[in-house]
Amino acid sequence: MVQFNIPTGVGYTVNGIDYNYFQKVSVNTSTYGGSSGTGMVPDCIIWFPTAGVQFLNLGTGVVEVSFNGNTTHMELNSANVSAGMTFDNRIISKIWFRVQTGSSGPIVVSVNAWASQG
Question: If I label 96, which of 10, 18, 25, 44 is the partner at 20 to 30 A Cα–Cα?
Fold first, then answer.
């Protein structure tokens, strides 16, 4: 039998900073920032520089995504391969969602992000 010498204190990381992000967002409005009332607050704020971000439309219909709250940068369409998108080596910190005209909410979007630090 192989025996490993595990250093003291190794186990679950409960101290320090976690450079991983996960959130499920329920998208209900047809305007960016509509869920904030003012239109200025993003649906997701990732507080660390990302090395990768993954989006997945968990519902039916089309969700539009913006990284500045004004311009549509991509669509997450549940009917085709664009239901999920991954960005590598790109820093994304603010994300707005809206339901595309012709689709109806709520549509749940899963957002996962990670960093190379840590």
Answer: 18
